[in-house]
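Notebook entry, cofactor series.
This is the third protein in the set we're modelling with a bound small molecule. For this one the ligand is pyridoxal-5'-phosphate. I'm keeping the input format identical across the series so the outputs can be compared line by line later. Sequence and SMILES below, as received.
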Amino acid sequence: MSNRFASARLIVDTAALVANWRAFGAASGVAETGAAIKADGYGLGARAVMLALAAAGCREMFVAHWSEVAALMPLPPGVRVAVLHGVAPADVAAALDLPARPVLGSAAQVAEWRTTGRPCDIMVDTGINRLGLSPAEAVSGLLDGLEIDTLHSHLACAEQPDHPLNALQCARFTALAPQIPARRRALANSGGITLGGEYLFDLTRPGIGLYGGGAGPGGVPLAPVASIEAPVMQVRDVPAGDSVGYGATFVAPRPTRVAVVALGYADGYPRGASGRGSGFVGGTRCPLIGRVSMDMSCFDVTDAPALAEGDLLTIDFDLAGLSAASGRSQYELLTGLGARYARDYR
Ligand SMILES: *Cc1c(COP(=O)(O)O)cnc(C)c1O
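Returned structure with ligand:
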């Protein structure tokens, strides 16, 4: 990897990504397993994620915007892309130039796309009340004559297996599906795959779990995919009683060796990790001290005396732990990773 600048490294373990996709694939049974790679592959780099998953056999990619399709070009042989936001009037020209299908979610989108004569996917709303045709609209004749690749719906509460809305949405989709002449049906995101059985249909759309977030199917832990190493810009010795950082929230209880690293909330390292996060030097835990600021953070490296300026500090980027510490969801932690990292795909 090229690291011409002293920026933090975002290390993406593509073998772990593929292992997680295979775990969701196994749990998807006979359904084909796609991948949600919207929001730049949940912050990890959509094109690199697509290439790694395509090499492992993943054929169906999902993005939110047409601009995200453009960023994937050229597609590897056999890979297909669907655009979850469908097609807005402003997107039509770009959509006609790009090899992807819109997931049409309103009568207006259906009317607009029909004039192109091209295939599409359809989203029906079964209870989340975001995008999608109502089941009544879907069977009203509105879709007659369209070439529908995949009929989708999306679960509102898939991460809460006991929530009654799951079964209700599944029942509505099951009742609707035979009335729509689509090649395939798809309902499950990562959480939906974990619900198993009747939720799987013909195709699944896992996202967060591929990137190591949330629970694995059947409670099996997922492999962490993203890790961060941040360069030490300065090491300083702070006397007992002195404070460190904005707000002077940390006061050294003992003479403290402090590493100032180039990683801050502008890099998506959450400000809520202030006083709670950690770094590691080998096996030695180095607590984050004081406030995370925009471009830097400070760690107590008293117990790692060999750490020197220019070295890299491994940052604890355990999604579940950092989510609990910061109050930000695992989705936000991943998609909020900034643009300044040197990205290292392994
Ligand atoms: C984002 C998204 C997914 C993936 O959801 P995860 O919870 O990340 O697995 C699947 N389907 C749709 C329609 C989505 O918008």
